[in-house]
Design goal:
With 214 residues, the protein is of the alpha/beta class. It is 31% helix and 30% strand. It has helices spanning 2-9, 20-32, 47-54, 66-78, 114-127, 144-147, 176-182, and strands spanning 37-41, 58-63, 84-87, 100-106, 128-139, 151-153, 156-158, 171-172, 187-197, 203-213. Strands 3-2-1-4-5-10-9 form a 7-stranded mixed sheet, sandwiched between helices. A 3-stranded antiparallel sheet has the order 6-7-8, with no helix packed on it. The chain is globular, with a radius of gyration of 17 Å. It starts with a helix and ends with a strand. The relative contact order is 0.14. The model has no long low-confidence stretch (mean pLDDT 92).
């Protein structure tokens, strides 16, 4: 927790704008559910939270960093918006069963080892309403940060090269088989694999996006 707390306290990772994939998904779901409720795991400084609150979504977020949540709450208050923000770990969600239509994980779950991801996804399944959706973005195992890391165990890597995640304690990088295992409680309806290359055709980034339903 201390690592992310320090990052946010230093004014880093304070993203202002929502991610395009989340904007598209939320707007699509709102077409058929005007009373959409959503929870973001690892909501950070609240860029997605503020967007959803502005769109009338009944939104909640959980993050381990109190500094990030303070920043998110300040933005919400300034804009006269409301969200249920909780300082805690996504392996222990303090919401009742069947509370949300949507759970969002924008590269938050991959900050913990596989065992914690499994618990967090079980908790996410619990708090989702029947037919509810989970959207997750995870780094993929083709990412050069994973391939070049000095420590790897069961998909979790530490000790990255200076070019990647030098201030992060560790990250999980998912294979296609990992996605099937981790989301086995859900019905996966969409999975995409996105890879970026440099001018020499070397991979610079790789991630997996998952849409699944309870």
């Amino acid at each position: 927790m201390g690592n992310w707390q320090n990052i946010y306290q230093q004014g880093r990772q304070l993203n202002k704008y929502p991610y395009d994939a989340i904007v598209s998904l939320v707007m699509r779901l709102k077409r058929t559910n005007s009373s959409l409720s959503a929870l973001e795991l690892g909501c950070g400084a609240g860029n997605n939270i503020v967007f959803m609150a502005e769109e009338g979504v009944d939104v909640a977020g959980i993050d381990i960093s109190s500094a990030a949540l303070d920043f998110a709450q300040e933005r919400l208050t300034r804009l006269q918006l409301k969200a249920d923000l909780v300082n805690g770990h996504f392996t222990q969600l303090p919401w009742q069963d069947n509370s949300f239509d949507l759970v969002i994980d924008r590269s938050a779950l991959n900050c913990v080892p596989r065992s914690d991801i499994l618990v967090a996804l079980s908790e996410s399944y619990r708090v989702l309403k029947p037919g509810g959706c989970i959207f997750s973005i995870m780094y993929a195992d083709a990412h050069p940060a994973f391939i070049n890391s000095e420590y790897q165990h069961d998909g979790f890597a530490r000790q990255f090269s200076p070019d990647y995640f030098s201030d992060i304690d560790g990250l999980f990088f998912a294979s296609k088989a990992d996605v099937c295992e981790l989301f086995s409680k859900f019905t996966i309806t969409q999975q995409s694999y996105d890879v970026s290359y440099d001018q020499n055709d070397k991979i610079t980034s790789a991630q997996r996006s998952i849409v699944a339903y309870k």
